[in-house]
Amino acid sequence: MNDELEELVRFPREDLDIELKQWMDPADRSVQGKFAKELLALRNHGGGYLIIGFKDEHPAVPDPNRPPDLAGFSTDYFNNIVKKYAEPAFHCMSHVVTHPVTGEDFPVVVVPGGAKVPVRCKADSPDGGKSAKVDTYYIRRLGPESSPPQTGAEWEAMLQKCLLSQREELLTTISNLLGAGGGVVSGGLNVAKSPFAELLAFRDNAVHRLEELQMTTLPPGDCARFEHGRYVLSARIVGDIKELTPTDLLDLVSKLRRYTGWSPLHVFSRPELAPYLVDDNTIECWLARDEARDTAHADFWRLSSNGLITLVRGHQEDSPEITESLGGLAAGTGIELTLPAWRVAEFLLRVREIGAHMAQGPFKIQLIVEWSGLNGRKLFSQGNRRLMLEDHIAREPNFRKELELDTDEIDATLPRVIAKIVNPLLRRFSFFEPPKNFYDEELAKLTKREFA
To answer: Is residue 416, in this structure, part of any structural domain at all?
Structure first.
């Protein structure tokens, strides 16, 4: 937890689960009402952080009006606000976190998720209810901002989070009663520890299948074995899924919009590259069957009629085409700065399009992204498109992130969504922080097919 909180103050930003506030007088009752609205919204969002002492600018900067001490921003202070304004009440924790570079302290309030019913504001703030209004439910909305739900979809999303918490508590209770400790319990009841369990199982099966093919089909040292690492992008479309045949799936994925010359899940017509059926519900494709394969062009992917998708790729930076153009950069030693944003964005956009055809009505997207083989790699910019003044090197081999996204969020704020996914990856490289407007500029090029 300490490392996570330290990262929040080192790289402050507003997001759906992060709210920044400038220094305020904690004794001011109107300020307490403002804090109340943020705490209730974060609780209904599924948890998050309230960080105090930063101006919400781009990028965020510390507020110079620092109080002489931070005793007023204690855990008791915020829980008293919760008791006054929240129904039902919940417990939050306030931590004083020291910035690892400047040494300045900032209060970070951790708001837990797991609400089994939506939290209602039960009192008006002293400013006539302008900051917090009685009998109002607050959520985190795109912007980001804390405000009441304004559409049926926003109400549904809030209620679904509560229902999921109720379900997980019930399943945990059943598991404990039967002594199973999670997983499958007696009587055939499947107790899932994670809402991503179905996607994880699909992902694991796909990767296991690929590793079997690599071991049994490819000679030792073959570039398509991804011996220097790989990345795996997996998604699940969560909604009312139509009944589609494998032929329907193939036709659907064949017509997806392409954003780059090497689009994920692209369907080739050549027999050695064409997808094939692995069971009644799943189509699979392995491009390493082509003898002209290289590390960057040996994709493996699966798509099921249940709305589950996994793509496995080797690092493009390890292919001869890239290493030769960089004067002989050794395979396994570099990651091109812009590629993760491009690859994740195009994958997500194509999954979004698949979901629009597979789902009847609204749907969400669960996403799991993973990189391996990172340790010792250095960020670089091909063609010096981006100025790199220092060496930024990864010291951990793997990176993984799970998240669930609303399609409205993807449509309205794609650069922010990609930043939420890719920024934590880039920070593994000696705390690298991309420049302002990095994602806006790169995704504009992607969507306009500007590859230079």
So the answer is: yes
233 and 359 assigned to the same domain: yes
Between 229 and 143, whose confidence is greater?
Answer: 229
The pairing of strands 93-98 and 136-137 is unpaired
Q: Beta-carbon neighbour count of residue 223 at 10 Å?
A: 20
Task: Name the residue among 106, 79, 84 with its Cα closest to residue 20.
Answer: 106
Long-range contacts of 187-196 (CB under 8 A, 24+ apart): 195/164, 195/168, 195/366, 195/404, 196/236, 196/366, 196/368, 196/402
Tell me the C-alpha distance between 368 and 199, whole Å. 8
Sign of CA dihedral 256, 276, 205, 425: negative
Residue indicated by tokens 């900067």: 61
Q: What is the mean pLDDT of residues 155-162?
A: 84
Which residue's entry shows tokens 């620092």?
A: 66
**Contact assessment for residue 289 and residue 272, using Cβ atoms and an 8 Å cutoff:** yes
Domain-located, residue 184? no
In a domain? residue 164: no
Confidence of residue 175 (pLDDT cuts 50, 70, 90): very low
- Euclidean distance between CA atoms 130 and 125, whole angstroms: 7
Label residue 436 by pLDDT band (50, 70, 90).
confident
Report the chain's mean pLDDT, rounded to a whole number. Answer: 87
Q: Which residue has the higher pLDDT, 324 or 111?
A: 111
Would you give the DSSP letter of residue 385? -
Domain assignment of residue 361, yes or no: yes
Distance CA 32, CA 79 (A): 11
What does the radius of gyration of the chain's CA atoms come to, in whole angstroms? 24
Q: Same structural domain for residues 314 and 402? A: yes
Contact 15, 420 (CB under 8 A): yes
What is the three-class DSSP state of 101? Answer: coil
Query: 310 near 330, Cβ under 8 Å?
Result: no
Here the tokens at position 354 are 């698949």
Please say which residue of 157, 186, 205 terminates a domain: 157
What single-letter DSSP state applies at residue 112?
P
What are the tens digits of pLDDT across the range 344-358?
A: 999 999 999 999 999
Q: Is the pLDDT of residue 33 over 50?
A: yes
Helix (H) or strand (E) holding 185, with range, is none
Strands 48-52 and 18-21: what pairing? parallel
% of the chain beyond a pLDDT of 70: 89
Domain that holds residue 128: 2-157
- Cα–Cα separations (whole angstroms), residue 101 to 97, 168, 332, 341: 12, 40, 31, 27
Among candidate residues 108, 133, 157, the one where a domain is terminated: 157
Per-residue pLDDT at 451 exceeds 60: no
How far apart CA 420 and CA 17 sit, in angstroms, is 11
